[in-house]
Structure prediction request, 344 residues.
Amino acid sequence: MKSFERPVLSHLKSITDPLLDPMQFAYRANRSVDDAVNMALHFILQHLDSAGTYARILFVDYSSAFNTIIPTLLLQDKLSQLHVPDSTGRWITDFLSDRKQHVKLGKHVSNSLTISTGSPQGCVLSPLLFSLYTNCCTSSHQSVKLDNLELNALKTVEMVVDFRRNAAPSSPITLCDSPVSTAESFRFLGTVISQDLKWQQNVSCITKKAQQRMYFLRQLKKFNLPKAMMVHFYTSIIESILTSSITIWYAAATIKDRSRLQRIIRYAEKVIGCNLPSLQDLHASRTLRRARKIMLDPSHPGHILFKTLLSGKRLGSVKTKTSRHKNSFFPHATGLINLFKKKK
Prediction:
């Protein structure tokens, strides 16, 4: 079934992608979770550049989001408005309706139930269908509707970023008759964001994971695995952790935090017996690659931040007033691109 879902997915994307909310990053071509975090941080840092300001960030959680999709509503109010062909819409409605489901525990199997709500877990189409289903959930229009989505107040968290000298306590937020808890840090799309907007905690998490995986590299060394295979293992299993969301945090990380991660690379070099790409080089290459993809996508909300000057040789700098904003993705990427052009 998944083999048939894939061409349907490609067909749906070709139709709906230009019509989706520009701030929707999930499951879209040439976009990543890093883009979502970088855009969020850009708006926060840009706001904090103004004197006397602070930011209250609300990380909202929905209960069993994929299970809230109603096929008829998806067809009538979503797919039809996005100009999806009626035949495709009816196939999707039929695909989601009258599904049989049962629970198996050991040798025991429950009676089957017929379900016509939600999307199957592990389904190729589920992520995009959910994005289409919630496409109207934007904050820019009075007609915003949450459909059947239920806010999970227990998992919704607020984080206050306030660098004022005389910061006053913020009034609590109440959601579903329950006060929203506050946090000093939060893992947002895989990246730990702290209320001081520093990256020590995030780097500590990365360091711990990478060090745990170094054990397996040492074991491969004991079994005299060929050097080329060890490098491949390192790149896939350890380097992928070290560079996780590196475009978000590396430029703003302290020298001490960068050194902690670079030491892991140096140790891996000793184990394997060859030179490996430095973290700084990996960050530069990935930042340039991510920035170029954004520059080639006019619909990307960050596209406007990469403005070419009238000379056509350089990009205009992103205006910043603080070092924490200057070291965020968009200003730093602009500087890297200009430096790269200058060297050429």
The first strand starts at residue 54 and ends at 59. The two ends are 50 Å apart (CA to CA).
